[in-house]
Design a protein that fits this description.
The complex is a heterodimer of chains A (520) and B (410). Chain A is mainly alpha-helical and 520 residues long. Chain A contains 25 helices and five strands. Chain A has two domains: 315 residues, no CATH class; 109 residues. In chain A, 63% of the residues lie in helices and 4% in strands. Chain A is globular. Chain B folds into two domains: 124 residues, no CATH class; 229 residues, Spore Coat Polysaccharide Biosynthesis Protein SpsA, Chain A. Chain B is built from 14 helices and nine strands.
C-alpha cells in the first residue's frame, strides 16, 4: 500500500493576518501623508501671519463679536441684528483665548489669525479625506491638498479671519461623513448636523447643499437603507438648523416690527435692499475688480479649478465636489448680485479637489504603465504644469512670507496702549481692527466706538447726547476714509480734529486725531 | 429645568439609537432577516394556542396553522372550563384534524394566558414549543424557517416577527402598527445581540426541555412573555430574533382606545412586576443588567417624556425664560422630532414591505397623532403604576374582532 501525500491545506490564519496588516499600513500611510503636508502648509500660513495681508475691517468685526461672546455680552457688543448667523464667531470665541494668553504683545487681529490655524489645519486634512473618499488615489488626494494649500490665494486668504473658513470646514466634514464608507445611519445624521453648523457659520454656504445631497445619494446607492439615510440627514440638518430661528422666536425678533431688529427683516435686507456689486463681466464694477484682485493673487487655481469643476460633472465619483464648485461659479457669475470679498474662500477647496479629480482621471485613462510614449506624454505634461505654475506661486507665496503690511497698525496699537494723553475716560472712535486692541489695553468697551455705529446705530447715538463733541479722539484709517459721504458724523469728526500722531506711508497712514471741540 | 431637559434628551437619544439598530448600516439590516431554509426538517413542534372568548377568530387561526408546510407539528388549543362557546369551536376544529389537534381544558379558577400555557405544557410532545394567540395569522412557511433557524444557530429560543397590519383602522392603530414595526424589525435584534431580551407574546419558539427546566411561565405575571425572556436570558439561553416581512405573524390592533389602554396598562404593569421580581439581577454582565433596568423602566420614562417635553416647550415659548435656558428646553425635542422623522420613513418602509398603500393623509395622521398617542401611553403608564401599587393584578383581556383578516372592510 502506498501512502498518498496529502496536499497541505492552505492555512487560513496567516492569510487573515496578511490581509489585516496592509490595511492598517494603508491607513497609517494616509495619516502620515495628510498630517505631514498639513503641517508644512500650516507652517507656511503661520510664517509672517501678523505681517501679511493687511488687517481688514471684517477680521476686526468678527474678532470683536467673538470677544463679546467670550465676555458674556451676548452675540455682539452692539445690538445683534442678524446680519450673519452667529455660530462662526461663537466657535472663534472658543479658540481665540489661547493666542492672547501665549502672545499678549501681538495686535488683536494677529492673535485672532493664530487662533484660526487649527481651523485651517482641519480644513486641509478634510480636503485630503474627502478626496480619498471620492475614490482618488493617494497621490491625487495629496495633489488636491497641495494645490489648495500652496495657492497664493489660499496663503493670503487662509491667514485672515473669515466666517467662511468655519463654514468650509464644516461642509467638508459633512461631505466626508456623507461619503463614509461604512454608510452608518448616524454618520448621515452627523452629516446633516454638520451641514447645519456650516450654514449657521456662514449662510452663503447653503448654496452647495445639493453637492452634499449628491454625495449622500451616491454613497447610499444600491443600499437597502437609503431612505433611512436621508431621513437621518434631514433630521440632523433641520433640527440643528432650526435653533437659529428658534433663538429669534424666543427673543421675539423673528418678524420685523417697530423698535427691534428681526431675523426676517435682516434677510429682506440681505436679499433685497443690499446694493449689488455688479456683474463680473462689466469692467469697473465692484464684482469685476474683486475678481481681478483674486486673479492677481492666483489665476491658476481659479481658471483651472473652474474648468475642472465643469468637466468633473461628467465623472461620477468627482461629481459631488465638482457640483459644489460649479454652483459657486454660477452664483458668482449671476448678474446684479452681491459678491462678498471673501467669497473665494468657499470656492478654493472644491476647485483644488476637482483639479485633482480630473488629473486622476486623466492618468487612469492614459495608463502610463503600458507604453513608454504614454509615460513620456505624462511626464511632459507634468513638467509643463509645474513649469507654468511654480514661478507664479513662488512669487505669490514669497510675498505672503515676507511682506510686512501691518506695521502701522501695530505701532498705532502701541501708541493707543501707552502714549495717548488723557486716555482715562476718553471716548475714542476707531475702526473695527483697532477696537479690540483698545479694549485689551484697558479702555472701557462702551467708550470705544466703531466709527460707522455713530451714524448707523441709534443705541450708540443715544450714548453721545452732544453728538460728535462727546468724542475725544478719532483714529483715522484707510477704511474710515474710504466712503466719507455716507457717514456725516464721521466726516465731521475728521474735519474737526488735528493729527497728534501718524503711522505708515502717505495714503495708507493711520492717524491719531484729537477732536477740536471749540471750533465750529 | 436644565437638568431635566438634559436627562430627557439623553434618554430619548439612547432610545432612538436603539430603535434604529437594524438600519444602522446595510449589513446590520441584512443580518436581521431569516436565512432561507435548506428544505430539511428535523424538529417537531407543539404549537400552543390559548383561546378565551375568542370563538370568532379561533377557527380561522387554526385552519391557517394546519396549512403549515412543515411535516411534524401538533396544535394544542387551550380553552377555559367556563368558556363553552370557545370550547365548542375548538372541539369542532379538532375533529377536522384529530391527529394534529389536541384540546386541553384549563380548570384554574383564575384564568390568564400564562396559566393556560402551563396547563398545556405537560401535553407537549414536540422538541420545540411555539406560542400563538387565537387571532394570529401565521404564514404556512414559518415553521420551516424556524426549524432552520434553530439548527443553523444552535439557539434555545427563536423569536419570529409579529406585525400589526390594520394601520388604517383608526388614528392610534397607525402608531400602534409602527410601534410593532420598529420593535420587531429593529429593537429586538439589539436585545438578542446584547443577551437580554423581553420576548414577545407569540410567534415565540422555545426548546421544550429548556422551557420545562425553567418551570414554564409565571402564572402570576401580567407580562409572562417578557418574564420568560428575562428568566431565559439570565440563565444564558441563546435567543435568536429573525424578521421577514413575508412570513411575519399578522395581528390586529386593539379594537378601541379603551382596549389599547387596557392592553398597554397590562404590559406596563407586567414590566413593573418583572422589574420587581429581580430575576434580571442574575444577568452576568453589568451592561446587560443596565440594559434590563433601562428596558423595564423604559415605558414609564418614555410616557413621562412624551408628555413633559411638549409641555416644557410650551412653557419655554410662553413664559419669559432667559434665552439660553429656553433654548436648552428645546434640546430633548431634537431626538423626539428625529424619532417622528424616522417614523415617517418607517411608515413608507412598512407600506413597501407589506405591500400596503400608504397615502399622504396617513403621514399627516402620523404626525398629528404623535402627541395624543404619547398622552395615551402616559395614561397607560400611570394607570399601570397605580394598579400595581394598589394591588390590582387581574388580567384585563383585549377583545379581538378580526380586523386584520383578509377581506375585512378597510
Amino acid at each position: 500500500m502506498t501512502a498518498v501525500e496529502l496536499a497541505e491545506p492552505v492555512s487560513v490564519v496567516p492569510a487573515a493576518v496578511d490581509d489585516v496588516r496592509p490595511r492598517k499600513l494603508t491607513r497609517n500611510a494616509d495619516l502620515v501623508i495628510a498630517l505631514g503636508l498639513t503641517a508644512v502648509i500650516v507652517a507656511l500660513l503661520a510664517w509672517n501671519i501678523a505681517g501679511f495681508p493687511s488687517a481688514s475691517d471684517d477680521e476686526g468685526t468678527y474678532l470683536a463679536q467673538a470677544w463679546a461672546v467670550q465676555h458674556g455680552r451676548g452675540l455682539a457688543h452692539y445690538t445683534y441684528w442678524y446680519d450673519h448667523p452667529p455660530l462662526a464667531w461663537i466657535q472663534l470665541a472658543g479658540l481665540s483665548w489661547l493666542p492672547a494668553l501665549l502672545a499678549p504683545k501681538l495686535i488683536a487681529v494677529a492673535a485672532g489669525r493664530i487662533a484660526m490655524l487649527p481651523v485651517q489645519a482641519a480644513g486641509l486634512l478634510l480636503v485630503y479625506l474627502v478626496s480619498r473618499r471620492i475614490g482618488l488615489p493617494r497621490w491625487a488626494a495629496s495633489l488636491a491638498l497641495v494645490t489648495y494649500g500652496l495657492s497664493p490665494l489660499y496663503l493670503t486668504m487662509g491667514r485672515q479671519i473669515y466666517l467662511d473658513w468655519f463654514a468650509v470646514v464644516w461642509i467638508l466634514g459633512a461631505l466626508a461623513l456623507a461619503l463614509s464608507p461604512r454608510k452608518h445611519l448616524w454618520h448621515f445624521a452627523a452629516a446633516g448636523a454638520a451641514t447645519a453648523v456650516a450654514i449657521l457659520s456662514k449662510e452663503t454656504i447653503a448654496v452647495i447643499l445639493p453637492a452634499v445631497l449628491v454625495a449622500m445619494w451616491q454613497s447610499s446607492a444600491r443600499s437597502s437603507t437609503r431612505p433611512w439615510a436621508f431621513g437621518a440627514f434631514v433630521s440632523g440638518l433641520v433640527l440643528v438648523g432650526c435653533f437659529y430661528p428658534l433663538y429669534a422666536v424666543l427673543r421675539g425678533e423673528l418678524f420685523p416690527g417697530p423698535g427691534h431688529v428681526s431675523l426676517i427683516g435682516a434677510w429682506e435686507f440681505q436679499l433685497g435692499s443690499r446694493a449689488g456689486s455688479g456683474s463680473v463681466f462689466s469692467s469697473g464694477s465692484g464684482a469685476s475688480s474683486l475678481l481681478h484682485s483674486w486673479l492677481y493673487y492666483d489665476a491658476v487655481i481659479l481658471i483651472a479649478g473652474a474648468a475642472a469643476c465643469f468637466a468633473g460633472l461628467a465623472l461620477r465619483r468627482v461629481r459631488p465636489v465638482a457640483l459644489a464648485g460649479a454652483i459657486l461659479v454660477v452664483v458668482a457669475l449671476r448678474p446684479g448680485g452681491y459678491l462678498p470679498a471673501m467669497y473665494v474662500v468657499q470656492v478654493l477647496p472644491f476647485f483644488a479637489m476637482a483639479i485633482a479629480g480630473i488629473a486622476a482621471w486623466a492618468v487612469t485613462v492614459l495608463r502610463p504603465g503600458r507604453v513608454w510614449w504614454r509615460r513620456a506624454v505624462l511626464g511632459t505634461v507634468i513638467l509643463l504644469c509645474v513649469g507654468a505654475v511654480a514661478p507664479r506661486w513662488y512669487v505669490g507665496d514669497r510675498r505672503a512670507l515676507t511682506a510686512d503690511d501691518n506695521a502701522p497698525y501695530a505701532r498705532a496699537a502701541d501708541y493707543l496702549r501707552g502714549q495717548l494723553p488723557g486716555r482715562e475716560g476718553a471716548t475714542v472712535v476707531v475702526d473695527d481692527v483697532l477696537w479690540l486692541d483698545c479694549v485689551n489695553a484697558g479702555y472701557p468697551p462702551d467708550k470705544v466706538i466703531w466709527f460707522y455705529k455713530i451714524d448707523l446705530d441709534s443705541a450708540v447715538a443715544k450714548r453721545l447726547p452732544d453728538g460728535w463733541r462727546d468724542v475725544d479722539y478719532v483714529v483715522s484709517t484707510p477704511a474710515m476714509r474710504q466712503d466719507p459721504n455716507s457717514l456725516p458724523t464721521v466726516r465731521t469728526l475728521l474735519t474737526n480734529s488735528t493729527v497728534i500722531a501718524s503711522f505708515g506711508p502717505q495714503g495708507g497712514q493711520i492717524e491719531i486725531r484729537r477732536v477740536d471741540k471749540e471750533t465750529k | 429645568m436644565i437638568f431635566v431637559s438634559v436627562v430627557l434628551s439623553a434618554f430619548a437619544a439612547v432610545t432612538l439609537w436603539w430603535t434604529m439598530h437594524a438600519w444602522r448600516t446595510p449589513e446590520t439590516l441584512a443580518a436581521t432577516r431569516f436565512a432561507p431554509p435548506d428544505g430539511e426538517q428535523h424538529l417537531t413542534f407543539s404549537l400552543l394556542v390559548p383561546a378565551r372568548h375568542e370563538q370568532a377568530v379561533l377557527e380561522h387561526t387554526v385552519q391557517r396553522l394546519l396549512r403549515s408546510t412543515h411535516e411534524a407539528f401538533e396544535i394544542i388549543i387551550i380553552v377555559g372550563h367556563d368558556d363553552p362557546e370557545t370550547a365548542e369551536v375548538a372541539g369542532r376544529v379538532a375533529r377536522t384534524a384529530p391527529a394534529r389537534i389536541l384540546v386541553v381544558t384549563d380548570h384554574n379558577e383564575v384564568k390568564n394566558k400564562p396559566r393556560a400555557l402551563n396547563t398545556a405544557l405537560p401535553y407537549a410532545r414536540g422538541t420545540v414549543v411555539g406560542v400563538f394567540d387565537a387571532e394570529d395569522q401565521v404564514h404556512p412557511e414559518l415553521l420551516e424557517h424556524v426549524d432552520h433557524a434553530f439548527r443553523s444557530t444552535g439557539a434555545d429560543v427563536v423569536q419570529g416577527g409579529v406585525q400589526l397590519i390594520n394601520f388604517h383602522s383608526s388614528w392610534y392603530s397607525l402608531h400602534n402598527c409602527l410601534e410593532y414595526f420598529f420593535w420587531f424589525r429593529s429593537r429586538l435584534h439589539l436585545h438578542a445581540k446584547k443577551g437580554f431580551i423581553p420576548l414577545g407574546g407569540n410567534t415565540v419558539f422555545v426548546r421544550t426541555d429548556v422551557l420545562r427546566r425553567a418551570n414554564g411561565w409565571d402564572g402570576t405575571c401580567l407580562a409572562e412573555d417578557c418574564d420568560l425572556g428575562v428568566r431565559l436570558s439570565s440563565r444564558g439561553a441563546k435567543v435568536v430574533v429573525a424578521y421577514d416581512s413575508t412570513i411575519v405573524t399578522r395581528e390586529e390592533t386593539p379594537g378601541s382606545l379603551a382596549a389599547l389602554l387596557k392592553q398597554r396598562t397590562r404590559w406596563n404593569q407586567g414590566f413593573l412586576q418583572v422589574l420587581r421580581k429581580g430575576e434580571w439581577r442574575r444577568l452576568p454582565a453589568l451592561r446587560q443588567r443596565l440594559l434590563a433596568r433601562y428596558t423595564l423602566t423604559g415605558p414609564f420614562v418614555q410616557a413621562f417624556s412624551g408628555v413633559v417635553i411638549p409641555v416644557g416647550v410650551a412653557v419655554a415659548l410662553w413664559a419669559r425664560l432667559p434665552v439660553f435656558v429656553a433654548l436648552l428646553t428645546f434640546l430633548p425635542v431634537l431626538p423626539m422630532a428625529a424619532t417622528l422623522m424616522f417614523q415617517v420613513v418607517g411608515l413608507r418602509d412598512f407600506g413597501k414591505e407589506y405591500d400596503l398603500r400608504i397615502k399622504w393623509h396617513h403621514y399627516v395622521r402620523l404626525v398629528a397623532g404623535a402627541f395624543p398617542y404619547a398622552v395615551v401611553l402616559a395614561v397607560a403608564a400611570l394607570r399601570a403604576v397605580w394598579r400595581e401599587y394598589t394591588g390590582r393584578r387581574d388580567w384585563e383581556l383585549t377583545a379581538h374582532l378580526g380586523a386584520h383578516l383578509e377581506g375585512s372592510p378597510a
